[in-house]
Write a structure and sequence with these properties.
Elements: H1 31-42, H2 48-58, H3 60-68, H4 78-99, H5 102-109, H6 115-127, H7 129-147, H8 155-183, H9 185-190, H10 192-211, H11 215-246
């Protein structure tokens, strides 16, 4: 028989293809086989997904250095990790659209806005949430490249590091976000700023684990890193508002006080 992935001839008693390493699938797809495959792929303690999650929490430098230095099979690759994060984020956004209302949005950060404007911003943020999330990756990567670069990483390698970092953070906080959102949606909105700061601290933790600067240098570089990410954050917000004006999502009249 031939491998179904690379079409290389192989013996019938092989469980894995000796050419491409793919698992030999010998049975039709049933609910039992499907459940086993999902459990084996994502929840087996020996698989790359769980191993990557655990290591990025306790020894993130191992995963990131391994990928940059050419290791490809031991840990989940950054694009797959990001794909899982975006899938969970999409599920969370879907639930948010069902349980959050423009009134909660206005109470959190839209005081003084008209109901029409708050609804427009509310819808736009949800529509472009994934794009905004991805835009944060180069912002953090550039800040890290300029402040923490003892190992001489390329900027492209910093992009890989922050794909891992941002995806990991999104995956880890998903259960907390989901429970909070379902129990108390207004409390979820109050978590936004603390979670943002915790994300920055996790990023600094990873940078320090990779580069191992002395304490004094770490504090100084962390301060500069925070300033650079803050500038990048406001730059994204400004670009987002500019995009909304250019596309007609909002207009200047929306910001004028209603008679």
């Amino acid at each position: 028989m031939n491998c179904k992935n690379c079409n290389t001839p192989q013996r019938t008693d092989f469980n894995y293809c000796p050419s491409c390493g793919a698992k030999a699938v010998k049975h039709r797809l049933t609910f039992r086989n499907l459940t086993y495959d999902i459990t084996e792929r994502y929840f087996n303690l020996d698989n790359t997904f769980i191993r990557t999650i655990v290591q990025l929490c306790i020894r993130p430098e191992v995963v990131i250095d391994a990928y940059i230095n050419g290791v490809r099979r031991k840990y989940l690759n950054p694009i797959s990790h990001l794909g899982i994060a975006l899938t969970l984020s999409g599920l969370l956004i879907f639930i948010m659209q069902k349980v959050l209302t423009p009134d909660i949005f206005v109470e959190y950060g839209g005081q003084g806005m008209s109901e029409e404007l708050s609804k427009k911003l509310f819808d736009a943020i949800f529509d472009y949430q994934t794009l905004l999330f991805i835009l944060y990756i180069p912002v953090f990567a550039i800040a890290g490249y300029l402040t923490f670069n003892r190992k001489g990483y390329f900027l492209s390698e910093y992009m890989i590091a922050y794909i891992y970092i941002m995806a990991q953070w999104s995956i880890v906080i998903f259960p907390i976000s989901l429970i909070t959102l379902l129990v108390d949606p207004s409390a979820y909105m109050n978590l936004a700023i603390p979670m943002t700061f915790l994300m920055v601290f996790y990023s600094l933790f990873v940078m320090q684990r990779i580069h191992r600067f002395p304490v004094g240098a770490t504090i100084l570089r962390s301060f500069v890193f925070f300033l650079l990410t803050l500038i990048g954050y406001f730059a994204i917000i400004i670009l987002f508002y500019a995009f909304m004006f250019l596309t007609g999502i909002v207009t200047l009249e929306d910001f004028l006080p209603k008679q």
